[in-house]
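Changelog note: in this version the structure field was regenerated for every chain. One regenerated record is shown below for reference.
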Amino acid sequence: MYQFSAAVKAGKSIGESAELCKGLSSDMRELQDCGESESSADFVDALFETNRKAVESTQ
């Protein structure tokens, strides 16, 4: 359960960073490493979607 809680917290933090990047100019996006945040957000979304499907298939 601890791992799931940590994953949720990390996912939330990554998502918040990606949201902040949406309104920034291209220069500011580069300074804030927005490409990295958005890539991480995509990964976390895919990971949680995979886990959701796995749980649903066992129910």
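Spot check on this record: Residues 16 and 37 are 9 Å apart (CA to CA). The helical segments are 2-21, 26-31, 34-58.
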